[in-house]
Write a structure and sequence with these properties.
The chain is an alpha/beta fold and 354 residues long. It has 12 helices and 11 strands. The longest helix is centred in the middle third of the chain and has 17 residues.
Length: 354
């Protein structure tokens, strides 16, 4: 029995093991994860879960960063054991050493360490696929330095999909009353000039089908109400400011509605993100990265969570970047990391409705 399966005795807590990659070593990833490593009390993140967190990183980098920050770092080595029961280290944080190629200085990028960043992602993804890990949480990476190393890389979302399969849909969620604000993206990490050509009826139908399915399956929302942004200002102004809403987005939504998917739109993005609409919505689909995420991050930056839908594994992430200027200063805030861990455990510990 693997860690993400329920025990036969219903009174026993479910044991889950999460992999947490430390991201760009010169950024704030190690800073944030050192706080977890320093706290070696058994972690009970949920009354019904016994949790082990496995931090992936370079032990020397963490040791040096701990000295700089004045933190204790005596995290035990990870001992793989995929069987359910009492996890290694009694549910505490353990450390999986993944060496860097070059010495690390806080705030100083080094392309020679790009392979280290990707090796951690590969190890965590492989563990998720095998059942060794119930899910993975990722600290931020720096896309530019990975590309500078000669490795094409557009982001975690696309990279993991290439490794494990599936069709990824990027969704960020933030606390908001009366309902959480959930923003998914029709396109992810593309230059703005490339966005219109990437939006097709087929791609929209696929993204919205996955979004609808995952909201039902993972979050237990029986009939999700999804608001869909237009691409152009004023949702095209009846074709005077662009025809994508008339020729592509509108027809795709009409077809989906005949299949029972409650996709509403296309709506002007500048009015969609107001309480009049959001108070009655379960999710928003934005057409491109900077159409939806500025609003989401304004509502909950530092506490929001990035969830990758459409993959065969569970993956959550922080809502922020590497913050090179904060690395090693002790000023990094771990609210989003904590929220991402809670979200991954919530997904891993909840039976998925088919």
């Amino acid at each position: 029995m693997t860690l993400n399966q329920s025990p036969t005795n219903a009174s026993m807590p479910i044991a889950l093991r999460l992999a947490i990659t430390s991201g760009e070593p010169s950024g704030i990833g190690p800073d944030l994860l050192l706080a977890l490593c320093a706290d070696q009390a058994p972690h009970r993140w949920d009354a019904e879960l016994v949790v082990e967190l496995v931090v992936l990183g370079d032990r020397k980098v963490f040791t040096e960063r701990a000295l700089l920050l004045g933190l204790a770092f005596n995290c035990p080595d990870y001992a793989p054991d995929p069987l359910i029961g009492t996890p290694p280290q009694g549910g505490r944080v353990s450390f999986l050493h993944c060496p860097t190629a070059s010495p690390v200085q806080p705030g100083k990028l080094d392309a020679r360490n790009a392979a280290h960043v990707l090796a951690m992602l590969d190890r965590a993804a492989e563990g998720c696929q095998s059942g060794e890990f119930a899910g993975m949480v990722t600290a931020p990476v720096h896309k530019g330095v990975i590309n500078d190393a000669g490795i094409p890389f557009s982001g975690h979302t696309e990279y993991l999909a290439d490794r494990v399969g599936g069709f990824p849909v990027m969704m960020l969620t933030a606390r908001r009353l009366p309902r959480p604000l959930r923003v998914a993206l029709a396109t992810t990490h593309l230059p703005l000039a490339a966005v219109p050509a990437a939006i097709t009826q087929e791609s929209l139908k696929r993204v919205l089908t996955i979004l609808h399915r995952e909201l039902c399956a993972w979050l237990g929302i029986p009939t999700p109400r999804i608001l869909v942004c237009g691409l152009n200002p004023h949702a095209g102004e009846s074709g005077h400011l662009g025809r994508e809403e008339i020729d592509i987005i509108g027809p795709a939504l009409e077809q989906l509605r005949t299949q029972g998917i409650n996709a509403i739109g296309p709506l002007p993005a500048d009015t969609l993100f107001t309480p009049q609409y959001l108070d009655h919505a379960d999710a928003v689909l934005a057409m491109y990265h900077d159409q939806g995420l500025p609003v989401l991050k304004f509502a909950g930056f530092g506490e929001a969570v990035n969830i990758t839908l459409g993959l065969p594994i569970i993956r959550t992430s922080v809502d922020h970047g590497t913050a090179l200027d904060l690395a090693g200063t002790g000023k990094a805030h771990g609210g989003s990391l904590s929220a991402a861990i809670h979200a991954a455990l919530s997904l891993a510990g909840r039976p998925k409705n088919s």
